[in-house]
Structure formats: structure tokens, C-alpha cells
């Protein structure tokens, strides 16, 4: 794996490895990791402090058996982790971080306390002298706690060298004035940084630190003594902390160190300057996407005299990193331009190896081709090359000056001219022209015999003239005026009269064309601006009109209940045999769940860069100490090299605690843990038949979708919404811009809703039921029509609509619904309750909204008047018998409880005409009545095993099998711990009837009796028919064909 980057990553990685260490070999490996960390981040105080503390703990642990080491490990440990090695490590670390004025005292205080502990046991004069020297050196270094250090030294002298107290302090005070003054100058900036850090404002910290670095660099230029050390230390702080992955600051640091090396050659500095090549190596390891840093690394390697193989290795390291094109092709071109420049300089060096020219010849051509292929793979046909044509110019210079192959170089120019990006650039044509002029001037004059008339012919740069002529012919040239100017001057200076006349004609035409082009461009800009203003105004008007129209006619996806669908008496008796106590139990369950609102958006974290083969168990184990996980969803990244997870915790506090694992290590992978807020979109009001593919296609242009969650329909089959979780906030923000989009569907025009998910802003229900304007009439006389009911109600107010549901045979069901214009009118009409109308006593009440809708029923499309089309009176009287309905009815099993009846009906109708469909999510299935037995047989064969959603295959069977199937039990429910604040009502269990069973367990004491009775009835031919097997349906299907 790649090494960690930055002090936080190194510390997290080492911490993760230390958790699994329990032997001497493992401890030695941890020490080696610390060595690598201090090499990668030499100025990190936290890494050095952790390293020295760990090494010191190993030294103390191996001295006795209290730490649990074996005897053999103790003996080996005493040889490896010696006292001198430990103290030397403290000293080495201090030398590298002592000029960190803000926090070096943390390291110093820990080190000096260890030194004083040892002196307290030995009390040697050498120890006193050593610690006194350490204190004197420390007080000459600027740091934030100078006064505290001075007091510590005072106490030390009072105890161990009181006789020299005054002389020591007098000397220290005199020599420390420069250090105190240096810190005083920097203290205001340090205080600003501390305040920004205290409030957690990372952006403010970066702004202050940038200003601080610029100021410190300026101090170095004024006085390159103490500020050099302080400047380097400040850069170490910045690059190990908040600017770990900032390529601009790394470039500034490289330039700063390079400048110090330049100065040191004329006036040696007192402070050791970091190796420039090492700085470049660290820079590219922290910012592998920066082509500018890779270019400086290659240049530094060349300057340091590295071999060709070493420089080539750097180039290969750059091309092998997957981040080089992170910000586009510019970094790729920067790196390749540096590589090609190295090849050219190496080949043109007079003392170069004889193979250098051949290597450069091949390498430059390969680099040019590699950049082109890289660009095409990234941008396809849209890639047009480097606008500065750097590699092409390097290749032209090499071919011209080193190899003398002018024709080959001209071929490179002509090849570049084929690219529209360069063909439209005046700079390209101007440089091409200058190259042709350089070639022309370098060619010797031909030694031809003098003509008879004694006049020598005029030497003309024809090819240079041709270049300018070609440039003038480009219709989209970015600065044609400049080319016209150069062309005109060139013709006057070099060409014959005929060519000059023709050229001036072309220039005149070009100037007219350019003038017209400029006018057209100005007019086009003005027209575009006016059109944009008009379009914005028109769009605002259109949205207002469409919204008003949709509100007037009502949205097809509003909370209307389906009442005009009904099953026949025989089939309904089977599908509605649900004990009343079970309905009550489900209602209690719904009410209990209403109190337990899951705020997923504020309790979830998105974890990226997990190992590709990570398991849910490993994720739960890793995060279990931060809280209870309600749900964990994982998904593989597109490249297959890693995976990501969306983890839902129980409370926002637990979610925030899990953020502590950000940039920590999961095994050997450095993970990112970010809040899940702003990633999830609530989507509703889309077509009823929409599935996951439809939603993904609808939002495909917004960004990568991590997950789509459809709601469970177990307790309410009318739900039509879903949650989209995106991989980043930018994609989610784009998705919200889809809000208000008009969707065309069979239901009419739908206004899509796409908003950030926020349970606290749940929209209140609207419509006639929610507003109390709908009246429910029961026990209506079967002979009454909708017009009769309307006339009866109009005396109470304006009646907007009346619906009289009918069964499949076209008969009234004795129930009606009426919508008034106002709530007051509907309440007044309730007076009709208990009045006699015809031969029946009317029951009237306001319609009540209910969320418990466990079954969805849909029938064949009705005619315009609301009745189902019938062939005639005889057909109406002799409808299908209960047995016939059962024979052409099947059950669809293992249907996910997120699939709507509309989606299921659209799937089933592909295989034949459907008379009736009853969706029962609480049994994971649906009852489907087809037009005939043959159609049902074909559908049963074709639907069995169909994968309706990934991982869920449908099964076909009988209605009895469906009734035995329980509702879907979700894994997430098992993961949820019951909240302490909620007390669900439970039946009294003190009567000895055993514990209450959870939702989904149904009392089943009569299963055996029912099965026996059913079997006997089937045998006698008086009960329900025996369920048909697949073989039976296959025979029916084949028979139907005959």
C-alpha cells in the first residue's frame, strides 16, 4: 500500500497497527514505522513526541516483567531499546522541531522531565551540567512559554546549583533578548491562529497562515539568520498540518528552500537547509496530482546529477499515479513537458552519452503520442491538445538544432496545425512563422553562376510567407489583426511585387471580413443577452401558469383514495380474512413507529476508501465504540479498488463521535468519514410505475447515486416517494434543481418534487379529506344515482363532485363520497346522518384520513361513466362463478414490500390481460386474476424466477400459499435498539399466556384443522380446488395452443 500522507494520517496508521501488536517483533515494526513517519514529516512535533514516548515506554517495559514481556523478549529488548538510544532520540527530535514557536514546549517539557527524573536518582555533577546546558540552549530559542521555561530553570538551579544562580540567570537573560524579541514580533499572528483553531474555523486558519508565511519569508530576506530557522519551522507546521495537500504551499516551500540554497552559495547560513531533492520528493508524495511539482522534481533530479534511470523512474512514478489527471490534462502536460525538456537538454549536452540522442529521439515522439492518447481517453474526441504546444516546440527544437532534420520538424508544425485549438491561435502561427524565418536565415546562400544580365535573383522566404497566408485563411482566428499586421510587414520586407500585390489584396479582403465578423459578434452578444432576459421572464411566467393549472385540476399523485375498485365476493372473502385484533395490532405498530422518527440525514456518515473486500461485520466492529448502528449500506467503487459505506447511527451525537475516525486507518486503508447531511434527496410525485432504473435515469446527469431507498408499503400501499443518497453534496445540490420539473406520464402531467430530506419539515397533507370537505355516505339505496345524491346535498352548499363506487358487475356498493366547497358546508350536511332515504337508513360522516392501507386493489380500466364494460344483460346476470375466478387466479410470491401495485401490474400485463390485482405487502405478494386460464398459465411459467429487483426473484403459487407467507422482516429492524424514551403498549402477560410475540407472528392454532378440511373438501369437489402445479399449467398452456 502507499505510505500515509501528513502527520494525522501517519499517527492514525501507526495507532491502528499498534492495536494488533503483542510481541517484540511487532514492537520493532512499530519503531520502523515511526522512523518512516519522521522521515516523511521531519518537522512534525506530534509524530516526534509519539515516537519518543513510545520508544521510552519500550525502554521502561523491558526492564521488568510487569509489562508482561517474556524473559527472552526482555533480554532482547534491553539490547535494542537502550537508555542512551532513548535519550539520543529525544535530542534528535528536539533539534528538528525546536523552532516551532507555538508547540515545541510540549516536546521539550516531556523530555526535560525525563532528564530531571534520571538526575533525581543519580545526582551527578555531569547530569547537572548537562541539564543546565539544555536549559540555556532552550531559553535562546523563541517559543510561546519562555517565561515558564525560565521559571523551571530557576527551580532547577535552586535545587541543584544554587551557588551559580545569579551568574547563570544574568547570562541567560542577556543572551535570550533576541529570542524574546523574535517571539514578540510573531505573537499577534500566533494568537490569531490559536483563536481560529479554538473555534474550529479551518478556512480562517488557512488565511492567517498564508499571511504568516508570506511575512516570515520577507523577514528571511531582510535578516537571514534566526528567521531562516523560524521560516523553515513555520513551513513544517503548515505542511504537516492544514496545508498537507496544498500544492501551492508546497511550491512556495520549494521556491523558498531553493532561494536559500542560492543564497548559501555566496554567504553560508548558520542553519542547515533541507535537501532540495528531498523537498521535491515529499511534495509529490503529498500532492501527486500536481504536474508542476513533478516538473520541479524532475528538474531537481537533473540538477542533482541523478542518472537517466533514476530520472526515468521519477517520470514513471508520475504516470503511474492515478491522481495526475485529477484536475484535467494540464498537470499531465506539465510533467511530460519537464520530462521532454530533460531529454532535450541531455541530448544537446556536448558531453552527453552517445545514446542520449537516440533516447531523446524516441522519448520525445513517445511522449507526444502518450499525451495525445491520455487526453483522448480522458475527454474522448473533445481533447484538442496543449494550447501552449510545449512538447511540440521541444521536439521541433531537437529536430532542428540537434539532428538537423528540418523537414521532420516542419512535419511536426503541420501536424499541430491540424488541431483546431492551435489553428485558431495567432500565437501558434506567429511562432511557426518565426521558426521558418530562422530556418531561412540559417541556410547558406546558393553558389549558382551569375546570370547573363549580371543581376542576382532576390532570395525570398517563400515558406514563411505561406505560413502567414494559411493563418489568414483561418475563419476563427483569435487575433487576426495581429497576423494581418505581421503579414503586411513581411510582404513589404521580403516579397516580389507580384506576390506583394496579391498579398495586399488578401489583406484588404481579410480586414473587411474581420470587421464584419466583429460587428456580427457584437450583435450576437447583444441578441443573446436580450434572449436570455426574455427567456428568464418567459420561464417565470410559464412556471407560474403551469403550477396554477395543476393546482386547479389536482395532482394525480395526491392523497385520493381508490374506492372504485372492488373484488368479487368470492375472492374478497379470501384476501380479507384478517382478524380484527391483527388490524388493531398493526395500527398500534404504526402509531408506535410514528413516535420513532428516524432522522437518517443527521445521524449518518459516509465512509469512503474502505477495503474492497470489507464485510458488514468488520464495519460494525470498527465503529461499535462510537454508538449503535441502525443500518449499514455498502457499495463497491467503480474502479473495484475500494468500497464505501453509508452508516446510520441512532443519534446525532453518535454520528458526530464517529467523525473522529476521519483520515484514520481501517486495516491498511486510510478512510474518509464525512457527515451524511446534504447527501440525501426526498423525491416524490413521479409516475406510479417508476422503478429504480427510472429514478436513476431521471437523475443521471446530477452525479453518482450511492443508494435509492423506496419506502415499505406494508402498512400503506399508497406511498409514492423515495430517498436518493448521492456520493457528494454537489450532486445532491444539482438534484434539487430538478424540483418542479414537469413529468409526462399516463396519469397526466406531474410536478416532480426533489428536495433535501428533512423529517422536521414534513409537508402537511392537503386535499378534500385533510381539509374536512369530503363526506362519506354509507347504506345508500342501491337505486340512487350520482345525480340523485348531488340534488340531495346541494341544499347544504356547493357540491364539487360526487362519486358512487360500483363493483365489477356495475352495481352500486351502497357507499358514496361527496366533496363540498368548504369545510363548513360539509359539516352542515352531516345532519343527514340517521335519516331514512328510500328503504335504508343513511349513515353520513366526514371522511377520515387513515395511514393504514395494507392492501392495494386495482381492476381493469373502467368506461367513461365509471362502469366496467359489459357485453349485455345476460352477461351481467351470468357472471363468472367463484370457482371460475379461482381457476384463473394465481399468487405472486416473494414480492418486495417496496414494489407498488402499478409497477407490478405493468410487469404482469406484459404476459396477458389482467382483470384484477390485489397487492398485499404484508404477505410479500399479490393476488392476480387473469382474463382466462390459459393466460394465467403462460404468465405463471414466465414470471416464476423473474428477478424484479437485484437479489429478489419472484415465485408463483396459489392464494393459500400467499396467505401462509409472512411479511418482510428487514435486517435494519434487527439492528435497532429500542429507545429508552418510548413505551409501547403491550397486552398483560401476567396471566400465564407466555411472552408477547413480535410483529409478524400470527396465532396459528387451527392450521392443521384448516389444512385437513381443505383437503377433504377438495376431494369431495365441494371446497376450493387443489392448487395446480407448474406441470398442470404447462399442460393448460399447450392445450390452449391446440
TrEMBL record:
**Natural source organism:** Apiospora kogelbergensis
Where is this protein localized, as stated in its record?
Answer: Nucleus
**GO MF:** RNA binding
Which Gene Ontology BP annotations are present?
Answer: mRNA processing; RNA splicing
Listed under GO cellular component are:
U6 snRNP
> What does this gene product do?
Functions as a recycling factor of the spliceosome, a machinery that forms on each precursor-messenger RNA (pre-mRNA) and catalyzes the removal of introns. Chaperones the re-annealing of U4 and U6 snRNAs (small nuclear RNAs) released from previous rounds of splicing, an initial step in reforming the U4/U6-U5 tri-snRNP (small nuclear ribonucleoprotein) that can reassemble into another spliceosome complex; this step involves binding U6 and facilitating the unwinding of the U6 internal stem loop, followed by base-pairing of U6 to U4.
Matching entries from Pfam families are given as: RRM_1, RRM_occluded
| Biased composition range(s): Low complexity | 1003-1027
Q: What does the UniProt keyword field contain? A: mRNA processing, mRNA splicing, Nucleus, Repeat, RNA-binding
Q: What is this protein called?
A: U4/U6 snRNA-associated-splicing factor PRP24
Q: Which residues form the RRM domain?
A: 603-678, 679-759, 773-849, 888-961
Q: Where is this region: Disordered?
A: 549-598, 855-883, 979-1030
Its predominant location is nucleus
Amino acid at each position: 500500500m502507499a505510505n500515509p500522507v501528513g502527520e494525522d494520517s501517519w499517527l492514525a496508521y501507526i495507532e491502528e497497527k499498534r492495536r494488533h501488536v503483542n510481541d517484540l517483533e511487532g514492537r520493532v515494526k512499530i519503531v520502523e514505522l515511526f522512523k518512516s513517519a519522521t522521515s516523511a514529516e521531519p518537522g512534525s512535533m506530534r509524530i516526534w513526541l509519539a515516537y519518543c514516548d513510545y520508544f521510552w515506554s519500550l525502554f521502561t517495559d523491558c526492564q521488568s516483567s510487569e509489562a508482561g514481556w517474556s524473559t527472552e523478549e526482555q533480554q532482547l529488548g534491553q539490547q535494542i531499546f537502550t537508555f542512551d538510544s532513548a535519550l539520543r532520540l529525544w535530542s534528535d527530535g528536539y533539534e528538528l522541531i525546536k523552532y516551532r514557536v507555538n508547540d515545541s514546549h510540549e516536546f521539550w517539557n516531556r523530555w526535560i522531565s525525563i532528564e530531571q527524573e534520571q538526575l533525581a536518582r543519580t545526582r551527578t555533577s555531569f547530569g547537572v551540567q548537562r541539564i543546565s546546558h539544555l536549559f540555556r540552549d532552550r531559553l535562546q530559542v523563541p517559543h510561546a512559554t519562555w517565561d515558564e521555561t525560565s521559571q523551571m530553570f530557576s527551580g532547577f538551579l535552586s535545587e541543584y546549583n544554587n551557588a551559580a544562580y545569579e551568574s547563570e540567570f544574568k547570562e541567560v537573560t542577556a543572551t535570550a533578548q533576541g529570542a524574546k524579541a523574535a517571539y514578540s514580533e510573531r505573537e499577534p499572528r500566533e494568537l490569531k491562529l490559536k483563536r481560529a483553531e479554538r473555534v474550529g474555523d479551518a478556512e480562517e486558519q488557512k488565511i492567517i497562515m498564508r499571511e504568516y508565511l508570506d511575512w516570515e519569508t520577507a523577514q528571511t530576506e531582510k535578516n537571514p539568520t534566526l528567521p531562516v530557522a523560524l521560516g523553515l519551522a513555520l513551513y513544517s507546521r503548515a505542511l504537516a498540518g492544514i496545508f498537507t495537500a496544498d500544492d501551492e504551499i508546497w511550491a512556495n516551500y520549494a521556491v523558498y528552500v531553493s532561494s536559500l540554497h542560492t543564497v548559501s552559495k555566496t554567504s553560508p547560513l548558520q542553519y542547515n537547509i533541507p535537501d532540495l531533492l528531498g523537498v521535491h520528493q515529499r511534495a509529490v508524495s503529498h500532492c501527486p496530482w500536481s504536474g508542476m511539482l513533478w516538473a520541479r522534481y524532475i528538474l531537481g533530479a537533473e540538477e542533482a546529477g541523478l542518472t537517466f534511470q533514476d530520472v526515468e523512474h521519477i517520470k514513471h512514478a508520475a504516470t503511474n499515479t492515478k491522481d495526475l489527471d485529477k484536475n484535467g490534462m494540464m498537470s499531465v502536460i506539465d510533467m511530460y513537458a519537464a520530462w521532454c525538456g530533460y531529454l532535450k537538454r541531455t541530448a544537446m549536452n556536448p558531453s552527453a552519452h552517445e545514446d542520449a540522442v537516440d533516447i531523446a529521439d524516441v522519448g520525445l515522439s513517445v511522449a507526444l503520442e502518450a499525451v495525445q492518447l491520455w487526453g483522448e481517453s480522458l475527454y474522448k474526441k473533445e481533447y484538442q491538445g496543449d494550447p501552449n504546444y510545449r512538447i511540440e516546440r521541444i521536439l521541433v527544437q531537437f529536430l532542428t538544432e540537434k539532428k538537423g532534420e528540418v523537414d521532420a520538424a516542419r512535419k511536426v508544425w503541420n501536424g499541430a496545425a491540424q488541431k483546431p485549438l492551435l489553428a485558431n491561435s495567432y500565437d501558434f502561427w506567429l511562432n511557426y512563422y518565426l521558426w521558418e524565418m530562422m530556418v531561412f536565415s540559417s541556410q547558406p546562400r546558393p553558389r549558382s553562376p551569375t546570370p547573363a544580365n549580371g543581376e542576382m535573383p532576390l532570395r525570398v522566404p517563400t515558406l514563411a510567407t505561406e505560413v502567414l497566408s494559411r493563418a489568414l485563411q483561418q475563419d476563427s482566428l483569435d487575433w487576426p489583426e495581429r497576423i494581418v499586421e505581421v503579414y503586411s510587414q513581411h510582404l513589404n520586407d521580403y516579397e516580389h511585387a507580384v506576390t506583394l500585390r496579391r498579398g495586399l489584396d488578401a489583406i484588404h479582403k481579410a480586414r473587411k471580413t474581420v470587421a464584419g465578423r466583429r460587428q456580427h459578434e457584437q450583435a450576437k452578444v447583444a441578441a443573446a443577452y436580450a434572449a436570455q432576459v426574455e427567456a428568464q421572464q418567459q420561464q417565470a411566467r410559464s412556471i407560474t401558469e403551469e403550477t396554477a393549472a395543476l393546482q386547479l385540476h389536482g395532482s394525480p399523485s395526491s392523497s385520493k383514495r381508490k374506492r372504485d375498485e372492488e373484488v368479487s365476493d368470492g375472492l374478497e372473502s379470501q384476501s380479507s380474512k384478517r382478524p380484527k385484533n391483527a388490524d388493531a395490532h398493526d395500527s398500534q405498530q404504526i402509531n408506535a413507529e410514528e413516535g420513532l422518527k428516524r432522522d437518517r440525514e443527521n445521524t449518518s456518515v459516509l465512509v469512503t476508501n474502505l477495503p474492497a473486500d470489507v464485510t458488514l461485520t468488520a464495519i460494525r466492529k470498527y465503529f461499535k465504540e462510537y454508538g449503535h448502528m441502525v443500518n449499514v449500506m455498502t457499495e463497491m467503487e467503480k474502479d473495484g479498488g475500494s468500497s464505501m459505506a453509508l452508516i446510520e447511527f441512532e443519534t446525532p451525537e453518535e454520528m458526530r463521535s464517529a467523525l473522529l475516525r476521519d483520515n484514520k486507518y481501517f486495516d491498511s486503508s486510510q478512510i474518509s468519514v464525512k457527515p451524511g447531511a446534504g447527501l440525501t434527496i426526498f423525491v416524490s410525485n413521479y409516475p406510479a410505475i417508476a422503478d429504480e432504473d427510472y429514478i436513476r435515469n431521471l437523475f443521471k446527469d446530477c452525479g453518482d447515486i450511492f443508494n435509492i431507498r423506496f419506502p415499505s408499503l406494508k402498512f400503506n400501499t399508497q406511498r409514492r416517494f423515495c430517498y436518493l443518497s448521492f456520493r457528494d453534496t454537489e450532486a445532491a445540490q444539482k438534484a434539487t434543481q430538478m424540483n418542479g420539473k414537469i413529468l409526462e406520464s399516463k396519469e397526466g402531467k406531474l410536478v416532480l418534487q426533489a428536495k433535501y430530506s428533512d423529517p422536521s419539515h414534513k409537508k402537511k397533507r392537503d386535499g378534500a379529506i385533510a381539509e374536512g370537505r369530503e363526506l362519506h355516505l354509507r347504506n345508500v339505496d342501491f337505486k340512487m344515482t350520482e345525480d340523485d345524491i348531488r340534488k340531495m346535498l346541494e341544499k347544504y352548499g356547493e357540491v364539487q363532485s360526487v362519486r358512487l363506487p360500483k363493483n365489477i358487475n356495475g352495481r352500486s356498493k351502497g357507499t358514496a363520497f361527496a366533496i363540498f366547497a368548504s369545510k363548513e358546508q360539509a359539516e352542515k350536511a352531516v345532519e343527514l346522518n340517521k335519516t331514512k332515504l328510500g328503504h335504508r337508513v343513511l349513515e353520513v360522516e366526514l371522511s377520515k384520513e387513515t395511514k393504514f392501507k395494507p392492501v392495494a386493489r386495482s381492476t381493469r380500466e373502467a368506461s367513461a361513466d365509471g362502469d366496467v364494460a359489459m357485453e349485455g344483460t345476460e352477461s351481467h346476470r351470468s357472471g363468472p362463478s367463484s370457482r371460475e375466478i379461482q381457476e384463473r387466479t394465481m399468487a405472486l410470491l416473494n414480492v418486495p414490500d417496496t414494489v407498488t401495485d402499478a409497477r407490478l401490474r405493468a410487469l404482469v400485463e406484459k404476459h396477458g390481460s389482467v382483470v384484477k390485482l390485489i397487492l398485499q405487502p404484508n404477505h410479500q405478494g399479490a393476488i392476480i386474476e387473469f382474463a382466462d386460464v390459459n393466460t394465467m398459465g403462460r404468465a405463471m411459467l414466465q414470471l416464476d424466477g423473474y428477478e424484479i429487483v437485484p437479489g429478489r426473484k419472484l415465485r408463483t403459487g396459489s392464494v393459500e400459499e400467499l396467505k401462509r407467507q409472512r411479511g418482510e422482516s428487514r435486517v435494519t429492524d434487527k439492528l435497532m435498539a429500542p429507545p429508552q424514551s418510548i413505551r409501547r403498549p403491550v397486552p398483560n402477560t401476567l396471566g400465564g399466556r407466555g411472552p408477547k410475540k413480535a410483529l409478524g407472528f400470527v396465532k396459528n392454532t387451527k392450521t392443521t384443522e384448516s389444512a385437513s378440511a381443505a383437503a377433504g373438501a377438495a376431494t369431495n369437489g365441494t371446497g376450493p380446488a387443489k392448487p395446480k402445479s407448474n406441470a398442470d399449467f404447462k399442460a393448460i398452456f399447450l392445450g390452449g395452443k391446440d
